[in-house]
Amino acid sequence: MNRFNRSTPDFNPSGGAKNLKEKTVIGDSLKSKYEKAASVICKQGMFPFSINETTLTILERAVGDVEAELDLIAAFETKASQTLAELKVSSGMPKEAIIELANCLARKGLLFNQPNTAGMMVYRILPLMMVGLMEYTFMGPLQWNENEKELAILFQHLIDEIRDRVQENYDSFVPLFNMSPPIDRTVPARTTDDGKTIRVIPVNKNLDSTGEFVLPSQSIDEIIEKFDEIAVGHCFCRQRRALLGEPCATDAPLENCFTFGKSARHTASQGFARMITKEEAFKIMREAEAAGLVHKAFHPNSNVAKPETSICNCCKDCCDTLRTWKEGVFPLVNSTFHLSRIDRENCTGCGICVESCPTEAIRLDDTGKAIRDAGACFGCGVCAHFCPEEAISLEEGLRKVFILPPRLRISA
After folding, report:
1. In whole angstroms, what is the distance from residue 109 CA to residue 132 CA?
2. Of 28, 110, 253, 399, which sits most exposed with the smallest number of CB within 10 A?
3. pLDDT of residue 200
4. Is the previous residue joined to 294 through a cis bond, with omega within 30 degrees of 0?
5. Which distant-in-sequence residues (6+ apart) come within 8 Å of 388 by Cβ?
């Protein structure tokens, strides 16, 4: 039930960018608490969200009428990460109440509660998305019920609102987009479809003569070997698209969203994922690569010098990073150490690489041969994995891939 006196589209559980329309009067006290909590959550993450009907309804769906949880969220107004001692001051609540409420918010995908490297418990409020409530909501096993469908529609409505905001103010957003750090880092496929090793052309010069740059792990196996704590959950992008009535066109496997270390402990303890062995992780990664999925690693604050926190295995039609770029919402910003190189003499023009490329970086030219746009290639190796002629190799070299979202014509 939507408790806010604002107009919204009618909700249709069958799908579409619609949500709720039930004008139920809400008490001023509870309403103000929702708005206060929303003001805290909406400013978290890399992109600030507006406090409007959509974000308030999402928050209501997530929290319900638990006023104490709204009060604890509000306590993060001036500081997003706090210790228990700090929260006792900012919230005015006793220790036991904070711990209980924090556990409830963590299970709902709104709070991260894990000890830091010194062993001290730290509580961090999470954003609506990237990575926060939206991702954790759809990462665990779903019930495929109406509430989950409603939330999927509400989040899509939120993304559509951001798209309209960006498109209506496109020129103003470009300078902000240009300052964006890489959201993720591509880790390339290493074998072809028939199990052969993809040729890698080594970089022929020092990356950093000062010796300060440490190249992050460039293989999935190397990343997995780093960690003793590994958890796997379901792809939140593919699950959310399925709830919207748009199942994955590639029929990609679902359970291959990985978290490591502290993040693994968090996702497993909240029921978003399950702990697995390294052997099972290797097996799932091999299946993801065979399906043509892109390995994308995430690092704390986009700092590739720090250990990975997670790896997504992304398909070209469901991945939110790719979809929001193609649909005119956000730029595609990625860090990579590889670039595909096409041997035109061996290329037969079959077009498989054109179909498989997630960023549409490859096309066939007038001679029927494949050519690659270096600016759009983020070195995933999917083209090389599926090339039947082994005409594609990977050339090393640290790059930042940045592509602005397309400028769309928004209907009045």
Report:
1. 6
2. 28
3. 96
4. no
5. 193, 348, 350, 352
Mapped onto helix, strand or coil, the DSSP state of residue 210 is coil
* Nearest to 91, CA basis, from 76, 101, 106: 76
**pLDDT tens digits along 173-191:** 999 999 999 999 999 999 9
Q: What's the CA angle centered on 373, arms 387 and 312, to 5 degrees? A: 65
Express each pLDDT in 115-126 by its tens digit: 998 999 999 999
Domain definitions of the chain by residue range? 28-167, 180-403
Rounded Cα gap, residues 74 and 383, in angstroms? 47
Is residue 302 within 8 A of residue 168, CB to CB? The reply is no
Q: What is the CA radius of gyration of the chain?
A: 22
pLDDT one-digit tens code per residue, 88-105: 999 999 999 999 999 999
Coil, helix or strand at residue 157: helix
Give 128-161 pLDDT, tens digit per residue.
999 999 999 999 999 999 999 999 999 999 999 9
**Which 8-state DSSP code applies to residue 275?**
E
| CATH for the stretch 28-167 | 1.10.10.10
DSSP letter for 197, please. B
pLDDT at 15: 36
Alpha-carbon span 82 to 24, nearest angstrom: 35
CA distance 227 to 221: 11
Residue pair 371/365 in contact (Cβ under 8 Å)? The answer is yes
Per the CB < 8 A criterion, the answer to whether 154 and 57 are in contact is yes
**Is residue 9 predicted with pLDDT exceeding 90?**
no
